[in-house]
Amino acid sequence: AEDDRLKQLTQEGSTRLVGGLPSSGRVEIYHDGQWGTVCDDGWDLAEALVVCRQMGFSGAISAQSGGHYGEGSGPIWLDEVKCKGSESSLSDCSFEGWAGTDCTHKEDAGVVCEAGKNITINRQFSVDNSLGLSDDLGLLFDSGDGCDFSIYVRDLSEEAELVFCVHRLILMIYPELNITNESRNLTVEISQTCHPLVSSFLRYFYTRQIDVSITSAQCLHQLAFIFRVKKLMEDVGRVFTLLIPEDNTFRTQVAMYEYAVRTGDLVLQENVLQYLSWNCEFLTSSPVWSSISFHLMDALLQRSDLIVKDEAFLLEALERWIQDKGDEISLEQQAGLLNRIRFLLIPVDKLYDIQFSSSVLHQNHEKLYLTGLIRGFQFNALPFSKIRDKMGNESNEYRPRIYTADEWSVFINVTTFKYPNHGQDNRNQAFSTPAHPNALYRKQKVQWQAQVFLSVQECSNRGITCHSSPAARFLSNGNQNRYADTIRFSNRLILTCKNENNVFHVQVFKNDMAVIPTNSSLGLPNPCPDDYRFRFVVRPEFI
Per-residue DSSP letters for 141-168? Predict the structure, then answer.
């Protein structure tokens, strides 16, 4: 009944953002009593602007595509959305009809809205006294005056115990706590390392405000889980996402992922997995690599947003991990992970070398490797049209990850953002790549031009429209059109700190352009705002 009441309160055509920050995320729209996603076909800044204004933001920074904020579930309500930019809601734009789509959730659309002061379309004003009331209630908690409910906090070993006296009436505001008029006390168990944060956490029930740092995030998240305060748990998870780039050792991220699995926080799992995927190449060379769990390894190997030099590099890293684990994982688990390797996409010369260089092949998995090698050679020797029908539509074995070997990518180092007119020639690079890693196409070259514009004026000088800056353009000389029926190019822009080498943003090029969101609206903050570089990656994929 409660769910039905909430559904009635949600208006037809309402929108929400999921999987990101309050001002960014996957776009979902409410129709026929159910939330659903929007396909990214035709998704551009005009559509993002309508969504952002509908939700009370002053404008849009960028439109995201390709399931950038994770894949949704349920119906895909809208496809081929076309907005003028002046509509008051997304459902006012033209589209194919509700649920009229052939898209999958891999194409879920997202937006990044301007995170400045919100506006309201109908000029309504709200009276917000929560700050003053929060301060007063905080003082009430601090004083303990009139408290009538005890919370006992014990260490898991029961060697340490804290007692807090709070106000039953305050706790009864939170129905998830199941506190009644007859309740007198509550006992919870949590590690002693989290005990210093319990007072701040309980104060949150009074003020609904709390400070979160990279050292306190896990304890606060765990307390929110124990007390079943889902909203705070999600908020702490998002705050932790902002803090992720601060730990270059990957220890915090790996620990937080394991904790998110235990608590069932899918949003936090996805946020951490995305960061580890983007930084997979650096993760494999860190001391943490050999200690990560089987289920984390399995989750990583299923992703197509892994950034690595090539698939052979990933196989070598996995083999090293298997050897380091030894008897900790079974042969069945090893085989399951090795089957996640996309043998079809290993460069054919390295594919040949595997039979001589592999450290795992001759131990326990010779049949698995030989099957992978045969399929890899078939993939490189036969036209894709001949073997396509033998693969399922959902098969990932021929879908590329984000491969950054020198033959597929180029760097543009931006020396300064303070003087946009400086070094423009260094922000314009030409290079060529094979049409596809497949041996049949490796000798066929595609010419590319990579450009970075640091100001809207600089775009204008080149005859290009940029809605914000910096912006990047990545276009070919047109000869990629020769392969339009066989190969599509889903190219990527990677933003990387020069010194630490950590990746903090990946964006899909749409119509040859990628607009870089500002630091306040990035899914992850830019830890090096004045000293990062752009990496342009060519990503061909058989259709």
Answer: HHH-TT--EEEEEE-TTSS-EEEEEE-H
In this structure, whether the domain defined by 14-114 belongs to CATH 3.30.2420.10 is answered with no
Provide CATH code, domain 264-390.
1.25.40.420
Contacts of 1 (CB under 8 A, 6+ apart): none
Q: Which CATH superfamily is domain 124-243 in?
A: Potassium Channel Kv1.1; Chain A (3.30.710.10)
356: how many CB neighbours lie within 10 A of its CB? 7
Residue 543 identity: I
Q: Check pLDDT > 80 for residue 299.
A: yes
Phi-psi category of residue 349: left, alpha or beta, with phi > 0 → left and psi -120 to 50 → alpha: alpha
Looking at this protein, which amino acid is placed at residue 339? N
Q: How far apart are CA 414 and CA 532, in angstroms?
A: 7
Please name every residue paired with 447 in a beta bridge, in sequence order, or none if there are none.
432
504: DSSP letter: E
CA distances from 239 to 21, 208, 220, 523, 525 (A): 9, 15, 11, 11, 11
**List of residues 6+ apart from 353 with CB closer than 8 A:** none
pTM: 0.66
* 268: three-class secondary structure by DSSP: helix
pLDDT tens track for 301-322: 999 999 999 999 999 999 999 9
- Three-state DSSP class for 445? strand
pLDDT of residue 75: 92
The sign of the torsion formed by the CA atoms of 219, 222, 226, 230 equals: positive
- Predicted confidence band at 198 (pLDDT cuts at 50, 70, 90)? very high
Do the beta carbons of residue 294 and residue 257 sit within 8 Å? no
